[in-house]
Write a structure and sequence with these properties.
This protein is of the alpha/beta class. It has two domains: 121 residues, Rossmann fold; 103 residues, Arc Repressor Mutant, subunit A (Orthogonal Bundle). The chain has a five-stranded parallel sheet with strand order 2-1-3-4-5, with helices on both faces. Helix 2 packs parallel to helix 3, helix 6 crosses helix 10 and helix 7 crosses helix 8. The protein is elongated and about 65 Å long. 31% of the residues are buried.
Length: 251
């Protein structure tokens, strides 16, 4: 979410519906904006502007919400949550909409306060999923490189990389910023964090997956003199994962 504000695309730019709803949501601290009630316009907006939540009518002049959700899932690695609204309620339609990816289905008229709660709820779930995905990426990289999960350095490395992805300024001064940050998380000292991470890297270099190490660092693990420092190891993995996440539109 951009600057911790929920970003909501409303697929209706009429004064009585979309613009009025956007104004109400902005008053509640949500960044809301409108686009035409057209499948092509909404598709382009989702890919370009990357909203957290899309509020859309069930049908458009050129398409419908189910087709749009399918197209977005195909085109985007990180699709937004969808809230679909309609002038009529039908249990069969609701089931079809939910089964095809919508988080909620509403029939008009609906309460704006209730809608706000639902927007915040689905946006939070979406953000939690992103966080879980990033944690899984970091975990997979460390394990694939050959760092054993039972040693302290594994957990310190994981914490250091995760938080450097979230806040790259921590890498500007590893000794004075990153190590103390990790130390506070684990109720230990910066020097112990540094030693444990160095030990974890040594184990990966001596016993780890040489092919993975070569792919990440560009040289073989049997070249001891080329073993990266703690800072180099963390920075390189952080850079690569941040680039992957940026290309996927997740940061």
């Amino acid at each position: 979410m951009e600057n911790d504000r929920i970003k909501v695309l409303i697929g209706d730019d009429t004064a009585n519906n979309g613009i009025r709803l956007a104004s109400t949501l902005r008053e509640k601290g949500i960044y809301a904006y409108t686009r035409k009630r057209e499948g092509k316009a909404l598709f382009d907006s989702v890919l370009k502007e990357k909203p957290d939540v899309v509020i859309t009518d069930l049908t458009y002049p050129d398409s419908d919400a189910i087709i749009l959700m399918k197209e977005i899932r195909t085109a985007s690695k990180n699709p937004p949550a969808f809230i679909v609204v309609s002038d009529i309620y039908n249990s069969f339609i609701e089931r079809q909409v939910i089964e095809n990816g919508a988080s909620y289905f509403f029939a008009r008229p609906y309460d704006h306060d209730e809608l706000e709660k639902i927007i915040r709820g689905v946006a939070h779930k979406s953000e939690s999923k992103k966080s879980n995905d990033v944690e899984m990426m970091v975990t997979d990289v460390i394990r694939n490189l050959g760092v054993p999960a039972h040693i302290k350095g594994y957990h310190y490395l994981r914490c250091a990389i995760l938080n450097s992805i979230r806040d790259f300024t921590l890498m500007e001064c590893v000794t004075k910023q990153l190590y103390p940050f990790v130390a506070r998380e684990y109720n230990t000292t910066s020097s112990r964090v540094e030693r444990a991470i160095r030990h974890a890297i040594e184990i990966a270099w001596d016993r780890g997956n040489s092919e993975e190490i070569s792919n990440y660092f560009g040289y073989r693990s049997d070249n001891y003199r080329c073993r990266p420092t703690n800072s180099e190891f963390i920075a390189l993995i952080t850079d690569k994962l941040r680039l992957q996440l940026k290309n996927a539109g997740e940061i």
